[in-house]
Predict the structure.
Amino acid sequence: MNGPEFAAGETCNGRSSILAIIGEPQSSATVILSRTTGSFKIPVISHSATCECLSNRKYYPSVFRTIASDYHQSRALAYIVKYFGWSWVGAVNSDNDYGNYGMAIFLNIAQEEGICVEYSVKFQRTENEKLKMVVDTIKKGTAKVIVAFLTSFEMNNLLDQLSIQNITGLQVIGVEAWITASSMITPNSFRFADYVLKAFWETAFPCSHNNYSQTELNCSRYQDLLVLKNYNEDVPEQRYASNVYKAVYALAHSLHSLLKCKEHESCQQNLTIQPQEVVEALKHVNFTVKMGDRVWFDSTGATVAQYEVVNWQQDSDGSIQFKPVGYYDASLPLDQSFVLNTENIIWAGGQLEKEKSVIRQISQSATCECLSNRKDYPSFFRTIASDYHQSRALAYIVKYFGWSWVGAVNTDNDYGNYGMNIFLNTAQEEGICVEYSVKFYRTETEKLKKVVDIIKQGTAKVIVAFLTSFEMNNLLEQLSIQNITGLQIIGVEAWITAKSLITSKTFLFLGGSLGFAVRKIIIEGFSDYVLKEFWDTSFPCSQTERNSSQYSLKCSGYQDLLPLNNYNEDVPEQRYASNVYKAVYAVAHSMHSLLKCREQGCEKGLTIQPQQVVEALKNVNFTVKFGDHVWFDSTGGTVAQYEIVNWQQDSDGSIQFNPVGYYDASLSPDQRFVLNTENIIWAGGQLEKPKSVCSETCPPGTRKAAQKGRPVCCYDCIPCAEGEISNETAGLTVMVAILFYSKKDTPIVKANNSELSFLLLFSLTLCFLCSLTFIGQPTEWTISSDYHQGRALAYIVKHLGWSWVGTVNSDNDYGNNGMAIFLNTAQKEGICVEYSVKFYRTEHEKLKKVVVEALKKVNFTVKFGDLVWFDSTGATVAQYEIVNWQQDSDGSIQFKTVGYYDASLPPDQHFVVNTENILWAGEMLKKPRSVCSESCPPGTRKAAQKGKPVCCYDCIPCAEGEISNETEVMGIVLVSFSLFGVGLTLLVAILFYSKKDTPIVKANNSELSFLLLFSLSLCFLCSLTFIGRPTEWSCMLRHTAFGITFVLCISCVLGKTIVVLMAFKATFPGSNVMKWFGPAQQRLSVFAFTLMQVLICVLWLTISPPFPYKNMKYYKETIILECGLGSTIGFWAVLGYIGLLAVLCFILAFLARTLPDNFNEAKFITFSVQDRKCGYLDMPMITPFATPRAIGCPSCLMLYITDIAVHCSGHICTCNLHVHADEQGPWTFF
């Protein structure tokens, strides 16, 4: 549409004549357009706007697009980087919604996937200076892989700058916005190109002909479009053209539905369509275009993500081609969505080998604790300790000097924030109060002024400054401007020894500062090497006169370095130089091990990968010549070793960093921290340690009273109440006359053992002096330790019989130490502690948590019987009445209770409804039906209806071989076979019963015979539980019922066999062994054997019973309905017990093999037990498949029931052997 033309002829008061807009192509333009048309609810369908910002339906409810959101593309970028093993990449994006949203998603996914991003920079197409900074960053970076989330405009600008600076060899990973921009490629001739370039322009725009006489008449309204007449960049690829095609057809389909058009019929006339109706219709669009793509819009208004992965390659004729080397398709399963053919890829610089992008970095001075994260920085090492140790040491030095009230200021970056956070946590643990904690960055001048104002207004005299030398210099300038002096500053290694901070005025503010510095180490000869040999050897022009003719020739390449010729600030200190020395030797040692170097030399031709260097550095362990031991801990850092230095002024006025102590984490805890306080000069040149407290110690006769809203270190001193102890002391004079000494030579003293007498008098003197310890304020030395009180608390709990208690204590030394003693004693006394929590008086949030935790443990019963407790969500158990609106005879409405739901009951009792008492809608007594589709009749199956819920389906005929709802012939056969076995067993039982009075039946223990026949019937019937759709009850019944009945059957056979065997083995006259194998004992043995199996099954069903589930593991297109075993241990226990009894039967049958033929049941029992053993072995293989499936498995069922039947046939032979052997009666056919 032409904006000015419509603006002139239309107003915003009437109904919009525009129903939909197809366009804009760019995300930014689409955002602007949709905001303009949003109030009119006009749908905008874009074919190439991919910005994730447009997925927000709150702001863009009427935006649709026939291209996927960048959410998928950004994730796919991370996956492709992860796929190729690149762990170190750079990132650059357009500084607009398109680039910022896309890059943000990529960075999040990259972090999740363990990909490290060296830098993430951005620019806009018009920002030339910013672009140059971006290129400089890329040039200085070490990452060989660049992820470029740019539009084609920005990419073109970036390429210009890369070309100017000749930066090549980068593996660039691109996005759809520029990766297939073919402006340099001559388009091929094909039908669609001819249409666009000729037919479209000549038909739609008649003024495009060179008919100059009519130009002014026909072409005035097409001036903006005619400039695009020869634009053919996208035509050859047809990538976005297909999206335009889909957009047009999507709009056509929505209008088709709104106009109620039917096939071979016209559409309804005079229908008024509103833009909002088009929006709703577009949401339900679902069709397939002739090129095969399915078009529909998801909840964000976008289509499914489908991308080609293309590779820029050069043909033999020099032309550039975009060769597809894989794809990403979000519509496919996760394991198939991303496919790459790496063999066809040409890498950066025309290489056939993939570029490595892994950085191995060893830093000599990077101390940030953030770098200890091995997930984000797996290949980072440093020859300096992490700030974790320095931050804790800062708290220890503050605690050492008794400063309980300090201020804190830090640099607002990772270095300062991580370090200060550790300090604050340690300070809290040590009982140090922090008056304020403020931060700023070097460029934040206004924020710095606010920080200085806070310091000026504060009362703390000690400041912990976790700053870099840049921020410290800025802070000093502001302190100087406002003339704030007298502060005792505690510093860190980043600035405490920086000579750049020393000026004529700084000692006024930093004099007496204390801080931690990297140890000063003298490396012999290093100073001379740096100042002389290094410059003379590496830079010969440094000795050349500037006005000589050779200067311009030799020195043109060293102009940037020559100003540093006389820079020697760090050389005398050599603090960080020693760390560089260690880093170089660490790499040398790792390379030495990888190259397998020996005294004779190193192996030749070895290829070393970056990851090998990383692994070798982890195992480095050596000692340098100045005595330091070098190795890297699990975080890639070395052990913490600091000097504690003090800013002092010499007699000549020069500033010195004098060491006054050290901190060495490699030593034992009691030796790590050493300070020589006598050598310290404090702030302002004072020799006396400054005080930094919020409130002074209360004088005698007063006590502390906390100040509201302030830390615990701030309090008022108020007079003690009457009767309270103050610090006043009472005089007491004790005089002991030493009479014995004056009479030591008298006979009475000598005879009375003068040594013991003097010792007795000395002990009496001490007894008198002990009374003095009860006078005055109790101290650590004059009152019993909490050791006894903590133990006594445990004893009183034990005495009262309480075995379940909770504990809460103050989060300080008093509470923590006392509670630790109580908990240890409680454990020894058998007292269980449900929870142990702690908080400090100022920690209101923590106190709330303590109360919350206590509420979580609440468990009691109110007087009307309800149990009150809170679940993990903070709610009580769900208990509802189900009520039904009913009308009484008088017309009043009543809420009749017709059931309940109680989640506290077992699952099968949760939900109870009495349907007989329900009155349905319309006062009907019959329940109404509410289904989307009726159940499918036999011979058909469900087919989901597109765009509708799962309950809505069509019934279509079943394909050949599928099971429908028809009754199967195989099922009838299987049931018939099972019933035939039952009938056969019952026939034998009837024959036995008719001959129950015969001697052979009586002698054969008719009870066991009938019980055996009964168990055989149950064995046949058990097979019926394996037929049909698995349910909760049938799954539990299958294996357990079969196991119990099978054991009952074997127990009967076992009992009968033992009796026969013992009857023939007990051959000694007068032997009474048979009295232990009478009928009662046989019944007891059967009961005991069966009871054991029952107990096993009960445990199985109680702990983890079998359950029905849908198995989609074996066939993706088929759902197998089967029973899960629940507990596999229970299943194998049931089978194992059956196998144990079967083996026992077999052993007894083997022992009875020599019995006379007339009584030898052994061969029949052996046959039965051998077959049972086979069934026992194949049962684990049969069981998983012996379940009805959606496609049917009759052969599995047949095998299973046949197995049971064969077992039982052996038992029937055994049961009827008795009759056959003795009577030769009419049952010989058995």
Summary: The mean pLDDT is 75. The two ends are 97 Å apart (CA to CA). The first helix runs from residue 3 to 9. The CA atoms of residues 331 and 1171 lie 53 Å apart.
